[in-house]
Amino acid sequence: MISEAFVEARSLVSRIDPRIRVAAAAGYTSVVAVCDDLTALVASLGVSALLVILARLPLLKVAGRLTVVAGFLALIWALLPLTYGGPVMGRLGPLVFHAPGVRLALQITLKSVAIVTAFIALVATMDIATLGHSLLRLGVPAKVAYLLLMTYRYIFVLEQEYQRLLRAARIRGFKPGTNLHSYRTFAYLVGMLFVRASNRAQRVHQAMKCRGFRGRFYSLARFRASAGSWLFALLMAAVCTGLIWMQTKGFSIGFSI
Amino acid sequence: MHISEGVLSGPVLVSGAALAAAGTAMGLKSLDYDHVARAGILSAAFFVASLIHVPIGPSSVHLILNGVVGLLLGWAAFPVILVALLLQAVLFQFGGITTLGVNTIIMALPAVVCYYLFRSLIHRRRAVGLTAAFACGSLAVLGSALLAAAALVFTEQNFLQIAGLIIAAHLPVMIIEGIVTAFCVRFLQKVQPDMLPGTPAVADTTTY
Q1: Less Cβ around it within 10 Å: N or C end of chain A?
Q2: What is the rounded distance in angstroms from the CA atom of residue B79 to the CA atom of residue A61?
Q3: Does residue B145 register a pLDDT over 70?
Q4: Nearest Cβ partner for B84 among A84, A151, A161
Q5: A44 — phi, psi (to 5°)?
Q6: Min CA distance, B176 vs chain A (Å)?
Q7: Do B184 and A128 touch (CB under 8 A)?
């Protein structure tokens, strides 16, 4: 089922102003995404790990989420070292491993893990209502933020709707398999989901109008950036500058392949 | 379908983000505040539909349905898919901030193209209409796979094999998406035809 796995943790990170967390996450992950210097990437991995620790997240759960990227990384490790070309690093029977391929695979792995863990620590720890309102304050178009809030509000409702439809189908003896009948059944379930969503939308819209909706969602949350939040912003800015510096200067301390 | 974080190069990420921003701006223009609720709830339906796993042989694939989303929403598919992807990133870490633009283009551009290609064709007589709906579902997925492959190859020429593998892996998905979209569109034509483009809205179809 859909769950917000990382929201409960109260920590240093959760006390930082959500706007600053979102902005820091966007800035930091963008910088890491364009780095390819190995030292810079190892450093960023350290920073991301520190963020996870500061956020006091259950480490096993975070590692579990990394399996999302693990599939693609496995594919990269399986293919790139063998297909890249360039200087040969080692041989294993008929397999030839090329150094640039290994290097690229390593870069991508470090980058992926650093970005995903930082994102979990900074953004996945806030509930989506907070995220929506902080995006709004950060200058994201209002309609996008409202769309996010509406979507968030209804994913749980529609997920239950779908489970109900599926349960009803199962009770009538529906056993999913690889055949046209199953695909048709799923298509009708999805169609019904869209129909119900559309009808619900109409009712919701009417209800919103009755309550005087004029194109604005109000939030009672007051975002106040404390001194600590600004300090965090400053630190993250310093980290980003440091990474860019390592990247441009080719700052390598004997760490190369 | 999404490309995970840390794979693509800076130029690809930036151009993806710029194109996605343009597409989203187009979509927002066609979406006034009276339709935000509808788009949000359809976005939620799309999000849930992408959690549905249909069996294929011993394994299973999850539905994508960007073809259906394109048909139902037109240009508004851009902001709707953007938001669904953002939610997937926050809740499941599928994708993230830096790849949000590229992934939005990958999913939404084929959806909008399919909207223009098939919005009137799906209303033709039985066989033609059914074929059009099938093509809408499968071409949307093919378009997504091609765009994902292109993003990888523009990043690094040596990603060619991986890109090929991604396209190949999506061939069976194309067939399933085609079948599901065809049946889904036929279902909507019977049950709630005014949801589809090119059908005049019936004055009052819902019961309150």
Answers
A1: N
A2: 30
A3: yes
A4: A151
A5: -65, -35
A6: 7
A7: no
Question: What ipTM does this complex have?
Answer: 0.89
**Residue B63 amino acid letter:** L
Residue B204 lies in a domain: no
The Cα A122–Cα A13 span in angstroms is 7
Judged on CB neighbours under 10 Å (0-12, 13-18, 19+), B57 is: exposed
Question: What is the mean pLDDT for each group of 10 consecutive residues in chain A (257 residues)?
Answer: 72 85 92 88 91 86 84 85 77 78 88 91 87 88 90 91 93 91 93 91 89 79 81 90 84 50
Residue whose C-alpha is closest to residue B21's, from A131, A31, A141: A141
**List of residues 6+ apart from A223 with CB closer than 8 A:** A17, A18, A19, A133, A134, A137
What CATH number does residue B78 fall under?
Answer: 1.10.1760.20
- Residue A177 at interface with chain B, using a CB cutoff of 8 Å: yes
Please report whether residue B152 resides in a domain.
yes
What CA–CA distance (Å, rounded) separates B14 from B194?
38
Give percent of chain B above pLDDT 90. 53
**Which one, of A150, A159, A158, lies nearest residue A205 by Cα?**
A150
The type of residue at A72 is F
Contact B90 A183 (CB under 8 A): no
Give B204's pLDDT tier (boundaries 50, 70, 90): very low
Domain limits, chain A: 13-132+226-249, 141-210
Residue in B107, B71, B73, B17 with CA at minimum distance from that of residue B186 = B71
Q: Count the domains in chain B.
A: 1
Inter-chain CB proximity B187 and A187 less than 8 Å: yes
